[in-house]
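pinned: reference chain
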Amino acid sequence: MEMKNIEILNCLNGTAAMTTKKLPVKLAFAMKHNRKEMLNKLDAFEEMRKDILEQYPEVNEREAEFGKLLEETVEVDVKKVPIEVVELTDGEGYDKLTLGELEAIDFMLEEE
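pinned: its structure tokens
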């Protein structure tokens, strides 16, 4: 799946608190896989961010270049899960997901 750097950052931030929740195994595995994949993709992003900070002393130039970097796309190997697996979190034995958490994992839901 192609994702922009800004989307990757938003997904990582949105799912950070979910790593400690009790979730169905299939969902937890997919989330761990996807977070690891995204964190690996951010290595190059972080290097470029540092280069931009060094190369552009003017704040406006730096912000413009950083904006371009956020819009760049990378291929991410996304593991998807059926919505039925996510619905299990409404039952006993699992932690419920907030609306924000559901929005954060929307990219990894299989389309029906």
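why pinned: The beta strands are 2-4, 73-75. The mean pLDDT is 93.
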